[in-house]
Design goal:
Helices cover 15% and strands 19% of the residues. It is globular and about 40 Å long. The protein has 184 residues and is of the alpha+beta class. 29% of the residues are buried. β8 and β9 form a beta hairpin. The strands form 3 sheets. The chain has a 5-stranded antiparallel β-sheet, with helices on one face. A 3-stranded antiparallel β-sheet has the order 8-9-10, with no helix packed on it. A two-stranded parallel ribbon has the order 1-2. The chain has one domain. The protein has 2 helices and 10 strands; from the N terminus they run βαββαβββββββ. The N and C termini lie far apart (39 Å).
Length: 184
Amino acid sequence: MKFVLCKAGQQLREQFDDSYPDRNRVSDGWIGDTRHIGRKSDHSPDGNGWVFAIDVTADLNAHKEEMHSITDEIRKLAKRGDRRIKYIIYDGRICSSILNWKWRKYSGPNPHRSHAHFSFTTLGKNDSRFFEIPLLGGTQDDKRSKTGRWKLAKDIPSSSPSDLSSGGLGCRCHCQCRSSISLA
């Protein structure tokens, strides 16, 4: 049987790759290893070969706090109604619909400090819509246009730190550190 990552997982991974092309991928993955055998895991293929989870390495070769900001943006997207997202685990914390997408302590065997874990519902199986979050290429305004389609353009506010003439953008996590991110 051929294993297939759900479409929502493919889309989110693609947005990470597009937004952070030079990022570290050492902890990336979607198929469960031997540690996942014998326990329920969205990394383990279902009876039809579908996998409903991805891990993304926390080191994005950018500001170290950016993964915290990204996981929080995805949490907020889920809270606003994106039902493709089942739960998120990162840096010893977990959030899900169980407590209305509030972060709480995660007490599982792996605190997920080297990577963020994203699990998807079965709605993510064939739903490859763009995840409308600013740090991964989305707009600040997450509303749909009158046609029902997501807005895909990204505006750079004039007040944001930028160095476009040399091909870079300032830090995108709004921390005021003024670090540079290369677009090349």
